[in-house]
Design brief:
Elements lengths: L16 E3 L2 H6 L7 E6 L5 H14 L4 E6 L19 H11 L3 E3 L3 H4 L19 H4 L3 H16 L3 E5 L3 H13 L5 E5 L19 H34 L4 H9 L3 H14 L5 H16 L6 E9 L13 E11 L2 E11 L44
Parallel strand pairs: 1-4, 2-3, 2-5, 3-4, 5-6
Antiparallel strand pairs: 7-8, 8-9
């Protein structure tokens, strides 16, 4: 899938600094601009670089971009890949520097959790028990605990997270709002490979046949988006032509105009009753995933969910507004997630669903010009859920 690559960032005027302790980070002068943080678990790729470039643009020349690299043990469940999770700090530091970071903060587990795993943790609440939380119990508690700690340690004005982990972004945003963290949470759209696969550190585990099967995740999301766009187009035609009568379709069929008759039937169906957007989006995505389950190697679906961004509960068929279509599945031993944003019905205020791809564009990193430093926010905010 084609995507617009961002322009080159404003590079800092000095080499990136690699720090390992909170004390060293506290002693680092902040400068006159805002500080942005990009939190990672390492194994950086172009998706992370996009976050860093977005942060660099936002804070400008006078600001400071801190990239954290920490493999957080609290968010790995039993049998998950903590031990084999890639550790590539040298390469990560190089990528961060090239993307425009000023600092790479790579603390040890003892630095983040002195004395061992914390007895007091932040709970993600009801939202943290759904989807990823149901599949990985306790995962979001671990995420929020480390994010809270890293926000305290790095003390940023702005924090950038990828929309590929949509539920994670939503719970972090809710935490920042509910617990009054003085930080702005910014979501950056998913970056994809040319074949549509969302960039992930776990993609490296896929064999060539497994990668071909894994493409079903993005294909299912795009099928839902395109099917919804087709329904919207039919409804728009029906509204502009005045609801074609069923006898017109029958007359066309009698004349042998089968394709025209089928089109007239489709327009008449779209005009009748409420929109069917959520149901047709789900069905279109499900059909692709069902086909992928019969491939060799097969795709094993964990969940396909069409949810309200504010709380990640399933939306009803009569829903109007923004929603997230999320999918998680295993291919071989590798678990992958992906999502796309869709907008239904009268709640649509921006582009149609056909235009709502989550591929990165230059608009994805809207903010002050590179030369204009950002100012600290007055309230937490962001594009998904909560008052973010």
């Amino acid at each position: 899938m084609d995507e617009s690559r961002p322009t080159q960032p404003v590079r800092p005027s000095h080499p990136v600094r690699l720090l390992h302790t909170a004390a060293a980070l506290r002693d680092l002068p902040r400068g006159t601009g805002a500080r942005a943080v990009v939190m990672t678990m390492g194994a950086l790729h172009e998706g992370h670089a996009t976050l860093i470039r977005a942060a660099r643009r936002r804070v400008g020349r006078q600001g400071q971009v801190v990239v954290t690299v920490f493999v957080n043990p609290l968010q790995f469940g039993a049998g998950e890949d903590l031990d084999r999770y890639p550790r590539t700090l040298d390469a990560d530091t190089e990528l961060a520097a090239a993307a425009g970071a000023d600092v790479v903060f790579a603390p040890s587990a003892d630095e983040v959790y002195p004395g061992g795993e914390p007895q007091i943790r932040i709970t993600a609440g009801p939202m943290g028990t759904l989807l990823e939380g149901a599949s990985r119990p306790g995962h979001f508690d671990g995420v929020l605990t480390v994010v809270a700690k890293l926000l305290h340690l790095t003390a940023p004005d702005i924090a950038f997270y990828g929309q590929k982990d949509a539920q994670q972004l939503a719970v972090i945003t809710r935490m920042a709002a509910d617990l009054n963290f003085p930080v702005e949470i910014v979501g950056v759209p998913t970056v994809r490979e040319d074949d549509g696969l969302a960039l992930s550190s776990r993609n490296r585990y896929l064999s060539a046949p497994e990668r071909r099967t894994a493409l079903a995740l993005s294909a299912a999301l795009f099928a839902a988006r395109d099917r919804l766009a087709a329904e919207e187009a039919l409804r728009a035609r029906a509204a502009s032509t005045g609801h074609p009568a069923q006898d017109r379709a029958a007359a066309l069929a009698a004349l042998g105009e089968d394709r025209a008759a089928a089109d007239a039937h489709a327009v008449a169906y779209a005009a009748a009753g409420p929109p069917h957007g959520p149901s047709v989006a789900r069905a279109a995505a499900r059909a692709v995933l069902d086909d992928a389950a019969r491939l060799d190697p097969p795709l094993t679906l964990d969940y396909l969910a069409l949810v309200d961004p504010s709380d990640f509960t399933e939306i009803p068929d009569a829903y109007e507004g923004e929603a997230i279509l999320a999918v998680a599945a295993k291919v071989g031993t590798t678990r992958l997630i992906d999502n796309i944003r869709l907008v239904f019905g009268a709640g649509r205020t921006g582009p149609t669903a056909a235009q709502q791809g989550d591929t990165l564009t230059d608009a994805a990193t809207d903010g002050p010009a590179a030369d204009a430093p950002a100012t600290p926010p007055t309230t937490p905010q962001g594009p998904l859920g909560a008052t973010r």
